[in-house]
Specification:
Layout (H helix, E strand, L loop, with lengths): L8 E5 L4 H12 L3 E6 L4 H11 L3 E6 L5 H15 L4 E4 L14 H27 L3 E6 L12 H21 L4 E8 L5 H8 L4 H11 L8 H12 L10 E4 L9 H7 L2 H4 L2
Parallel strand pairs: 1-2, 1-4, 2-3, 4-5, 5-6, 6-7
Helix pairs in contact: 1-8, 3-4, 4-5, 6-7
The structure holds nicotinamide-adenine-dinucleotide.
Nicotinamide-adenine-dinucleotide binds next to helix 1, helix 4 and helix 6.
């Protein structure tokens, strides 16, 4: 079965860059009408225009997903423009570092407001339109929806929360024709990852370390996550709901991590 979203309307939050931009491009390439909801009023219109220039149907709708009134307004604008919503890709998110002591209350609230509450708000206003005709929601979690890295409490908690939100909403809407799934990427080469690497004195070393964390030997491309999102949004995934699909180059597989695999036991050297 080929993926074909002709006649379908897709919302992609955080579609101005990174995984969201690749997803908007992918879905538009498969003939969906795509609405990019993003806070970035500079990059957002440029991404939408580039997709439209390549023959896709795509428009930018400015929106801070952590503010209910803005989300409600943006969803109304999408429905006025395209007449429906079939696919919601809840992707927008931010990363902040800190432990329980060093994370400020403002940082915690800001990150949760975008990563977790933002996903709730977009669902709150989009789902009523989807129930009418059936549809699919794909939430972008992370390998940190299932595991943790140190000094990252708010992000890890928000990503664990998104998997809970996925499972809870999948039950609420299963009998009303809306499937809800989560993709959990490993390290993906986006502006967010480059920003995180840039916090180090040696960003390239961080990227090399990220490459080695994945058994496939490299970080992922945004397009590889977009492919998984398109699959989960499509009728090819018609019997999948409440699931978490890791798109991580095998990152979660090795017990003890890649370092342990390379040198930790006799099994690693006894060939
Ligand atoms: N890059 C990775 O390695 C990686 C790994 C796992 C999960 N993820 C997740 O994938 C998603 C996308 O990440 P990315 O790496 O493409 O990030 P990115 O920073 O490259 O892009 C994020 C997009 O979200 C938008 N955004 C931020 N705050 C917003 C808000 N309040 N309202 C609307 N839009 C907002 C930004 O403007 C931007 O366009 C995030 O949820 C992230 O946590 C990323």
């Amino acid at each position: 079965m080929n993926l074909d979203f002709t006649g379908k309307v897709a919302i992609v939050t955080g579609g101005a860059m990174g995984i969201g931009e690749a997803t908007a491009r992918k879905l538009a390439g498969l003939a969906a009408s795509v609405a990019i909801l993003d806070i970035d009023r500079d990059a957002g219109p440029k991404s939408a225009a580039a997709i439209a220039k390549n023959g896709g149907i795509c428009e930018f709708f400015p929106c801070n997903i952590s503010v209910g009134a803005e989300v409600s307004q943006a969803i109304d604008a999408v429905v006025s423009k395209y007449g429906a919503i079939d696919i919601l890709v809840s992707n927008a998110g931010i990363q902040l570092y800190g432990d329980a002591v060093t994370t400020s209350e403002e940082e915690w609230d800001r990150l949760m407001g975008i990563n977790l509450k933002g996903c709730f708000l977009v669902s709150k206003y989009a789902v009523p339109h989807m129930i009418e005709r059936g549809g699919a929601i794909v939430i972008v979690g992370s390998v940190q929806s299932m595991t943790a890295i140190s000094n990252s409490i708010a992000y890890v908690a928000s990503k664990h929360g998104l998997l809970g939100l996925t499972r809870a909403m999948s039950l609420d809407y299963a009998h009303r024709g809306v499937r809800v799934n989560c993709v959990c990427p490993g390290a993906i080469d986006t502006p967010m990852l480059r920003w995180a690497a840039g916090l180090s004195d040696d960003p390239e070393k961080v990227i090399q370390t990220c490459n080695r964390m994945h058994p496939l030997g490299r970080i992922g491309k945004p397009e590889e996550v977009a492919d998984a999102i398109a699959y989960l949004a499509s009728p090819m995934a018609s019997f999948i709901t409440g699931a978490a699909l890791v798109v991580d180059g095998g990152m979660l597989v090795p017990a003890g991590g890649m370092g342990f695999q390379e040198g930790g036991t006799g099994a690693a050297t006894h060939k």
